[in-house]
Design a protein that fits this description.
7-stranded antiparallel beta sheet; disordered N terminus; 4-stranded antiparallel beta sheet; 21 strands; Jelly Rolls
Amino acid sequence: MQMPTRILFRLTPLMLLLAGVASNLSAAEFDKSVLSVIRQKCVKCHGKGEINGDVDFKQYHTSKRLLGQPQLIERMINAIDDNNMPPEGEPPLDEQTRAEFLATLQTMLKQATTNNIVAGLKIRRLNRFQYNNTVKDLFQLKLDVFGLSEKLMTRYENYLHRAADGMPDLVQVGSQSLNPAAGLRNVTAFPKDLRASHGFDNQADQLTLSPLLLDAFLRLSVSIVESPDFNEQNVGIWNDLFMDPPAEIDRDAESQRRLALFLRTAFRGPVDNETLQRYAAYASANMEQGLSFSESMKKVVSAVLSSPHFLYRSVRADASERQFELASNLSYFLWGSCPDEELLRLAESGELSNDAVLRQTVDRMMLDPKIERFLDTFPTQWMQLENALAATPDPEINRYFSLDKQNPASLQMVLEPLLLFDTVFIEDRPLIELISPEFSYQSDFLTDWYTTPLRAPPVDEVRIVEDNRVRNEKLKLLQSSIAAVREELDVLDRARADPIAEKLITVDLSAGQAAWQAEQAKVVAVNVTLSPWHRIGPFGADSFDQAHEKAFFDESDVDLKQTFGDLKWVEAKDLVDGKLHNLSGVSCATYLYRTIHTDSGRDLELSLGSDDSFKIWLNGILVGEKKVIRGAAPDQDKLRVSLTKGDNTILMKVVNGGCGYAFYFKAEPLPLPAPVVAALKIAAGQRNEEQQQTLAAYYLSIAPELVEVRRQLAESRSVVSKRDRQLQDELKKAPKPQEIDKLRQDAQRRFDDQLRAKMRSRAFRRVAITDVRYGGVITNAAMLSMTSGPTRTHPIARGAWVVEVIFNNPPDPPPNDVPPLNEESGRQDLTIREKFAVHRENASCAGCHSKLDPLGFALENFDITGRWRDKYDNGRDVDSSGTLMRKYEFDGIVQFKESIVREDRRFAKAFTAHLLRFALSRELGPADSITINSIVDSLQQGDFKLRSLIREVAQSDVFVNR
């Protein structure tokens, strides 16, 4: 049978009791308790014709032989404890045999590792994150050295400064990972460090130093001190290290004094005199070559930053300096940076060897705001959340994931599990709350993502159809009314043109026409005399519209003696024709009045300009108007009016809406039409019929006999015209029929805009978990998205994530001869589980799939972006049932998480293994499982609280004495 690489172990009280008995096993007892089980249950697949999992138990027929293989003992413990062995289809061990077997193996593992000295790390290079933090803390920089894309969460209000009060209910956070804040100008970071298989980037075996990378470090150290941002304003220790000393101070001695303090911090411990003198001599040599004190010290600092003593953390050769190594291990574990002065002081005094002092130190470090660096690295890498930023769901399936290209949904998704981790840490909550908490931090976007259909509000088509019917009826009624008014205007226009023909008046024009013709034949031109203007105003109004429409007095009958409060008519001889004249006032009207005398009836052309609108009356009749917002200019409008013999009156109303206010006026008599002049030149008795009709038609247009009736018609037309304008305004303002497709598009656009705004929000609120399907690191959208493909979920990837991250039991890579699953093969009406059933028939696949499939399919109700579904696209129901560890049957995610909660010790042990690996910066071995068991045992009564766990890891022998 195939053994998994690492599976967790759980001690029961019975097993602990048996472990004590087994510590003094005789050869016979070993043969009975271990070999008999191996022979009955294991040799069939591991030594009797088959060598599955590279394990041949026939080799280990004595306790001595097996004790020489601690890795194998650990694999056996994990396989039995996880119920992976015996495999499916084989009779299981009875509970007592299983307990005795595990207890004996646990004792053997302790014996096998007691005298094994774990190979300690001799040297560890700083990774990118540690390098940035160390340089930043070393110089007390206000900026990062370079952009940190690996920092997934930015806290805009650092609640870690008040961690003693717990997490606030509202926090402002965001992810700048895709566009990290810039660091020092002209500084380029070295490439991202390689990640170990479990996701951590601080593992010593991955932090190699190639020649190219060494060159990058050398260039980087120079670029930092030469950056224009590396100055007195941004460097907190500028005065203590770089500022020129007073003239009376010896510069060489001062540089040596400053370097002694600086090197102790930069090299994280005591510096021998030879090293100090070498750097001090370099500073002196630079100053002798003419460089300033500041520039010389920058040169030295650049050399320090490229020194192996800075770039590497190494085991101290001198045992007396081991506490400096511990101080450094603590600071890089919890702060991702160099030790502060207090840590160095405790190391120098030897106090770190005191358990109580060490405990107090760890507590102090966890309360320091620099613990943010731990929260920026460990949880992100433990949960492998960087992968979420690479998720690219097919937009045809979910267009909203990348609705905002600069702020995809993944940037909000990764913040939820990180805020949960922050809370569990700050409030020192049990680890199991990472799996099944009673609360979560969510933005409005995430709340929508989990709980709403993510659809624009539907268009009420029934209501819109009815509204459109009502609107169309109103529009038709208005259009009908306008048509009737236009017809009435046409009638009035015809009547004004020839009131006699329209039978509005009975009058004989022959005598008047004869007199006019005789008079016109005698004169070549007709004199037109314009009086000076009289002006009154401005009259104020509430609005431009009101100022235009309102009659502030009887506009058809002007009385120059009439007054209106403080306003009265005044003569304005300065208003000369043919020039622009400024007026004053806003939302107001000014009136201008004059008389025009003509010796004979004629036409007059008025050239007008106005800022803004105008109305004009001739002899009390409204003959022209224009309502418009504009600036005044000459000759903006032309108006032809017909004067009668004698005095005529002109009234002009100029209205201003806002800003400028002016008017323009010019009048020019128009010559008689050429056909009229030609007819007049013919003697009366010699004119033909056409000439007589020409003269009759022209006289009809100017006949003084018709002035009164035309005035009355003009008044009527003015009333009807006003009604026309009102109806036109009503038609313009009347709601138009709505296009349902356009309404859908508008609703979608508004919904998209609202969602984009939410995707950019930084506000996350603490909310109670009311739907137990959600909450915790397993069912957050970030994990569910990053373990899915563009078009479908990947149960195997999700199962592998749970096995690796939650249970610390990563699966073996698939055999090379196993063909990949063809997603497109098979009938389209099959579920993913049914397609996988065929794949699992391959014997080489069955082992891993039996472990991964139940965990992955437990999450199948969540689609490729972490949203709930009950059915697949083909209409088939989602089946998320299964069995966890052959022990807990579940039907859905709720029971699945409940099963994990029941295994809280197993989760605590797995989490401890991850944390210990991160703290030690190396892979774990069989001996480390003893440490892990010890830590977990000590925390069981306290519900495995996170701060307590960190404290225990930092105080463990393997960490303190590594």
